[in-house]
Amino acid sequence: MEQKKMDKILRKIEAGREYRRMEVRAKAVEEENPEPSYKVEGYACTFNEPYELLSFDGYTLREQIDPHAFDECDMSDVIMQFDHQGRVFARQSNGTLELKADDHGLFIAADLGGTEAGKQLYDEIRGGYITKMSFGFTVDEDKREITENKEDGTVDILRTITRNRKLYDVSAVSLPANDGTEISARNWCDGVIAEFEAERLKSIAIQEARAKALAAINKYHKEV
Question: What is d(CA 100, CA 78) in angstroms, rounded to the nearest whole number?
Answer without folding.
Answer: 12
